[in-house]
Design a protein that fits this description.
Blueprint: E1 2-9, E2 22-29, E3 37-45, H1 50-53, E4 74-81, E5 91-94, E6 101-104, E7 110-111, H2 128-140, E8 148-152, H3 157-168, E9 172-177, H4 180-188, E10 194-197, H5 204-214, E11 219-224, H6 228-234, E12 238-246, H7 258-261, H8 265-273, E13 277-280, H9 290-302, E14 310-314, H10 319-327, E15 334-338
Parallel strand pairs: 8-9, 8-11, 9-10, 11-12, 12-13, 14-15
Antiparallel strand pairs: 1-2, 3-4, 3-6, 3-15, 4-5, 5-7
């Protein structure tokens, strides 16, 4: 018998989540049946979208039930197999949640090529966040060489790759991030042409002024990860027929400022008069291009032409605190938990 440690949703947060919303639970897993494998988690991915799963309301996916295991993807090792498609020792990406061990029938497991990059990248630059960046830039944003793109959360797991891919495409790349250190990293390491610390802007108008000075040819594409002040700053200065890829709204995930944000007459006017194309997207709707993303990005990562950064927290019992820090912008790059 294998003891499984998991992180359970103990209560639904009102506003930002706290440690009291989570509970650590231990139980024993039964022996695996034919066709199944036993997984031991190595890395757990923490991502902003998980905050929405903590609410009772259904969004694009069902909420985590009270008493249910928190949603998430992991990199795991197969430690026992009765499935001919997998061997003991295989490393896979698995959507098994915040757990130390799990049993799977293998249906949704993705084998990881360990020769390309560290296995943790299967949850970051070569996983869902990377797929999101590639899709938002190319499929949704229809980015072209010579254009200007603004990327919010510029040094996050999604934004950091989006910026590098945009630069490689021959675009002018402007970032918005939270903190001087992050902005310096965006310019010195990721290749951004400019990056602005939204924390230093008193309001959207001041941030808009900075963006105007940095985008003499206007803004053709906006990669939206944050919402709030950055969105208010960008919308009025988009070029006619600009494209907005709406990937996330982390500043509103905990409900703060949502009522005010839903009052959109100004935003609708900008969309109308500038004939903007605004499209929200969920990356799982674009699984058909995952291999296209991987075939372009994996060689760049392997040859060290793509920079990535990770924040790694040790121990599954510390996942709730790491998740709260992620929502507060205290991580740098991709947030992971080292489970074993």
């Amino acid at each position: 018998m294998i003891e499984q440690t998991s992180v359970i949703l103990d209560s639904r947060p009102v506003g930002p989540p706290t440690s009291e919303n989570f509970r650590i639970m231990k139980n024993s897993l039964s022996e695996i049946n034919d066709g199944h494998v036993l997984l031991k988690t190595i890395y757990l991915s923490l991502d902003p979208y998980m905050r929405g799963r903590m609410n009772a309301d259904k969004s694009y996916a069902d909420p985590v039930p009270i008493g249910g295991i928190m949603e998430g993807e992991c990199v795991a090792e197969i430690i026992n197999s009765k499935n001919s498609n997998f061997r003991v020792g295989d490393i896979v990406a698995a959507r098994i949640g915040w757990v130390t061990h799990a049993i799977s029938d293998g249906t949704d497991l993705r084998k990881i090529d360990q020769s390309v990059a560290p296995i943790s990248t299967a949850l970051g630059v070569l996983g869902m966040p990377g797929h999101t960046a590639w899709t938002g830039l190319n499929i949704i944003g229809k980015a072209k060489p010579g254009e200007t793109v603004v990327i919010s959360a510029a040094t996050g797991a999604v934004g950091s790759l989006a910026g590098q891919l945009a630069k490689a495409k021959g675009m002018r790349v402007i970032g918005v991030a939270g903190g001087t250190e992050k902005c310096n990293f965006a310019k010195s390491d990721l290749g951004y042409d400019e990056c602005f610390d939204h924390k230093l802007a008193e309001n959207a108008s001041e941030l808009r002024k900075w963006l105007l000075e940095a985008t003499p040819k206007g803004i053709d594409v906006y990669f939206e990860n944050v919402g709030g002040k950055t969105t208010e700053a960008v919308l009025p200065i988009m070029n006619d027929f600009g494209r907005i890829s709406v990937c996330g709204m982390i500043s509103w995930y905990s409900g703060v400022g949502v009522d005010e944000a839903m009052r959109l007459p100004g935003a609708w006017r900008a969309i109308l008069t500038k004939r903007l194309q605004v499209r929200g997207f969920i990356v799982w709707d674009h699984n058909d291009v995952f291999n296209d993303f991987l075939s372009e990005t994996a060689p760049l990562v392997k040859s060290n032409k793509i920079i990535f950064r990770e924040t790694i927290t040790e121990g599954i019992e510390n996942a709730p605190e790491a998740f709260i820090n992620l929502l507060n912008g205290k991580n740098f790059g991709k947030q992971l938990v080292k489970v074993s």
